[in-house]
Amino acid sequence: MQLTLTLNGVRCTDEVQADTTLFTYLREKGCLSVKCGCETSNCGLCTVWLDEKPVLSCSVPALRADGKKVTTLEGLQDEAAEFGAYLADEGAEQCGYCSPGFIMNVLAMSRELTHPTEQEIQEYLAGNLCRCSGYQGQLRAIRKFLAAKGGCV
Amino acid sequence: MYTARNYVFADSPEHAWELNQKKTNTILSGGCWLRLGRRRYDTLIDLSKLGLNQIEQTDTYLELGAMVTLRQLETSPLLAQYFGSYFSDCTRHIVGVQFRNCATLGGSVAARFGFSDIVTALLPLNCQVHLVKAGWLPFTQYAAMPYDRDVLTHIRIPLQKHIQVVYQSTRNTQTDLPTLTCAASCCDGRISLALGARSSRPSLLHGNTQSDLLQEAEHLTYVENMRGSSAYRRHLAKILIQRVCTCLEGGQHPCS
Fold first, then answer.
1. What is the reported pLDDT for A94?
2. Which residues on chain A are in Cβ contact (under 8 Å) with B36?
3. Model-level pTM?
4. I want to staple B124 with a disulfide (CB 3.0 to 4.6 A). Which of A19, A51, B44, B192 is the partner?
């Protein structure tokens, strides 16, 4: 079946199977920042934006993205590098496997919430699991990142 | 993960209903639960191009489309205007923001899971559901009905004056499925209280006082599973009933 979408600003048309997930499609398109973790819609590793909203690409059928705008980390490289530097400064990147999904969700949060509280940050990011960091370094990085952007907690 | 041969965007609710009469086809709502299964489907029926993702207001009710996401429920200014933090309280513990941007109201309601925060929250609100063939039904009737192949399109929540609502749940960890859910509304001194995550379907109780509700809750079934024993859930039910009644007495969640 034919799928047409805008991937990181580039219009793409491809043939996909009915049961292809957006995750599989994006990996096949070379967006290797999109990773698979739990396959039970829990871990947030596969987070991408669908029409600017963060979604789990492992749970979205590729065909549902037809006509929509999909953004992965590859499409936000400057911003991702900027926040990634805060993660590195706080020693919060660790193995790095969860970082792309985590960064996508932090950037979505920074657009959606103005001046989020500590609780709002924790609730927004509850769907991003990290087995290395214990989350404290990540929270410090977010606070500093938001403060630098004028959206401090 | 499921497999499927065809994918169809329904042209109309009636088209979706026709396609859904074949047992090997299925409605694709959010797809979050469906993906956990390994079934083979002939056709996935996608409702996402039917404009069912709107929350609309009339003089007497709010009408929510089946494809409204849980995140929309959580953040809708309209729902917040009439129900305070009620819908935020019943959705914000469900996995994460990304999941709630995928999962839909219709998927949660049509599946009628016993653990559903959404079904528990809608039960005390005197809602109605719209099915393509059956038309409008009371939500309480729909919640108790056996599964069939009709297609849910809308839910109406009446705007009742002087109604108060409160939602509470307990979980072993923050984003886990709930161990027990409890939602209550109070209108003219009459309390309607739903208890979920304790059997295959949530139950709705009615009473004028906390003791009426505690007495009724004693007669319910409380299942035992990996999230809690039957005795633990029975005990939690008393606690949550006391908490929601205290909130209602304190007028903490009045609706305008």
1. 86
2. 40-41
3. 0.95
4. B192
Q: B75 and B26 in one domain?
A: no
Listed residue (A97, A110, A102) closest to A143, CA to CA: A110
> Nearest-CA distance from A149 to chain B in Å?
22
| Of residues A42, A61, A124, nearest to B97 (C-beta) | A124
Asked if residue B168 and residue B154 are part of one domain, the reply reads: no
Residue B35 to residue A105, Cβ atoms within 8 A? no
Tell me the fold of A76-149: DNA polymerase; domain 1 (1.10.150)
- Whether residue A105 and residue B97 make contact (CB cut-off 8 A), yes or no, is yes
Interface predicted TM-score (ipTM): 0.95
Q: Which of B6, B200, B206 is nearest to B119 (CA)?
A: B200
pLDDT of residue A151: 65
Q: Which residue of B53, B98, B104, B177 to mutate against A (max A Cβ within 10 Å)? A: B98
Is B254 contained in some domain? no
Domain that holds residue B182: 164-249
Q: Does pLDDT of B253 surpass 60?
A: no
Query: Mind listing the pLDDT tens digit for each residue in B126-164?
Result: 999 999 999 999 999 999 999 999 999 999 999 988 899
At B162 the pLDDT is 86
| B254: pLDDT strictly greater than 50 | no
Evaluate if residue A153 carries a pLDDT over 80. Answer: no
Q: How far is B207 from chain A (nearest CA, A)?
A: 34
Structure tokens at B102: 């995928």
Evaluated on CA atoms B221, B226, B227, B230, the torsion sign reads positive
Smallest CA–CA distance, residue B160 to chain A, in Å, is 30
State how many domains chain B has: 3
List all residues 6 or more positions away from B48 whose beta carbon is below 8 Å from its beta carbon.
A64, B9, B67
Q: Is B201 inside any structural domain?
A: yes
Closest Cα in chain B to A112: B75
* B76 CB neighbour count, 10 Å cutoff: 18
**The pLDDT of residue B34:** 87
Question: Distance from first CA to last CA of chain B, Å, rounded?
Answer: 44
* Cβ contact B4–A125 (<8 Å): no
